[in-house]
Amino acid sequence: IGRGVAKIAADFGCNVIYYSASGHSYDVPYERYELDEFLKKSDIVSIHAPLNKYTENLFNYETLKKMKSSADLVKALNEGVIAAAGLDVITTEPVAKDNPLLTIKDSNKLIVTPHVAWATYEARTRLMDEIYLNIKAFMAGEERNVIV
Questions:
Q1: pLDDT tens across 64-99, in order?
Q2: Is the C-alpha dihedral spanning 49, 135, 132, 143 positive or negative?
């Protein structure tokens, strides 16, 4: 997903750079930075990563302070430091009653989807096609989409 978003951003003229929480370098035409430098250089951050030991609590107040416009997300949105945010995943779903995101003063500045932003018709069609091809390969004794 991240590579697809990066390609679209590049197609729109963005200078795409990336950070790898796991430390891996990928064969992509984008420059890789360590987190601090990545945050200093980024106008937009789009995160496409599983929740694991490298990504858990990766973004917090201290991390956000390293970005060009420094503040925690709620404070930044409420003070107009950050224009808007779109989130597809939050720590606890459904949102807890004490979640600070619920204190955003202008709801037009925040979009939260229930972990379904991937669920376009095209994505679901591809998902079903891939499942079919995986089952077909398995039944034929072939390996397909093997994760090692």
A1: 777 765 447 888 888 887 788 888 878 777 888 988
A2: positive
- Interatomic CA distance for residues 31 and 18, integer angstroms: 6
pTM of the predicted structure, to 2 decimals: 0.53
Round to whole Å and give the CA distance between 12 and 126.
24
Cα 113 from chain centre: 13
Closest C-alpha to 14, from 39, 40, 35, 45: 45
Q: Which amino acid is at 83?
A: A
* DSSP notation for the chain: -HHHHHHHHHHTT---EE--TT----SSSSEE--HHHHHHH-S--------STTTTT-SSHHHHHTSSS-S-HHHHHHHTSS--EEES--SSSSPPTT-GGGG-S-GGGEEE-SS-TT--HHHHHHHHHHHHHHHHHHHTT---S---
